[in-house]
Amino acid sequence: MSTPPDDAALLAAELLARRWLPRNHPRVKRALIDADQWQAVERRLGEVGLRLVDNVFADHVTIALQRGTESAVFGEHGLNASNNLDLPRDAVALLIVLWSLIVLPKRERQAARASEPEGQMQVEMFGSTKAVPSARSVSPVVSYRALLADFGTQLGKKTRLDANLKLLERHGFIERRQDDIAEGPLLDLLLDYDALAPRILEGALGDVLLRDAPPTPTPQAPADTPAPSTHAD
Predict the structure, then answer these.
(1) What is the CA radius of gyration of the chain?
(2) What is the distance between the alpha carbons of residues 162 and 127, in angstroms, rounded to a whole number?
């Protein structure tokens, strides 16, 4: 007769099945305030090369590969790729744009300890109370129409933009609320704030958009002149 799984095993299993869980989930809440429980979950995940991902500025927790297992899983080609979700380059550029428009101002509000609706105060890991507003209470939304107007040309225009928004939503990076685009469960978990924020704030966003913009179409050759042949690399 098999032994029933403990709470650490159940939390690890649920994260594997659902990919992310809210911080107010009963088992997540227990792990966040109980160091022994947190370490037990990390041990269970570590046995299969995974790790818990959490930060106090996000409303969810998730799992990711340990750094030491990435090369074995993805190989050299995967590690050299811009992402391991097979996102096209314009989708990655869109993700960076949305991250900068949503996460950067949200983090500023949270760091400034913006006013918290009653009952929404988050508890830091292992019981230290800190008035960090929940992401949902301070996270800005991005207007789809404004996004299309401001970045549509660089991001492939409406057809590509719509397709990539659906892709990012499916992966949990964003949520769609009619004409608004909001933070998804993974937007502030799987992108490295410490590495990305300085580059965005120093103006690298323009370089990213320029690099990932679709190539300028070649002018149509006259009917009596053969067009130059092209081929994919």
Answers:
(1) 21
(2) 42
The DSSP letter of residue 129 is B
> Under 8 Å CB-to-CB from 96, ≥6 apart: which residues?
196, 200, 205, 208
- Whole-number Å distance between alpha carbons of 158 and 75: 34
Cβ neighbours of 168 (radius 10 Å): 23
* DSSP bridge pairs for 21: 61
174 and 116 Cβ atoms separated by less than 8 Å: no
Per-residue pLDDT of the chain (233 residues; tens, 9 = 90+): 577 889 999 999 999 999 999 999 999 999 999 999 999 999 999 999 999 999 999 999 999 998 888 778 877 655 544 556 778 899 999 999 999 999 999 998 898 864 545 544 444 454 444 568 888 889 999 999 999 999 999 898 999 999 999 999 999 999 999 999 999 999 999 998 998 888 887 775 655 544 444 443 433 333 332 333 333 33
Look at the block and give the residue holding tokens 């991005």: 142
Give the total residue count for the chain: 233
The C-alpha atoms of residue 74 and residue 190 are separated, in whole angstroms, by: 17
**Sheet with 20-22, side-by-side order of all strands:** 20-22, 60-65, 50-53
Residue indicated by tokens 């990076």: 173
| Alpha helix positions (H), 22-143 | 26-33, 35-46, 67-80, 89-111, 135-138
Tokens of 228: 């130059």
3-class secondary structure, 119:
coil
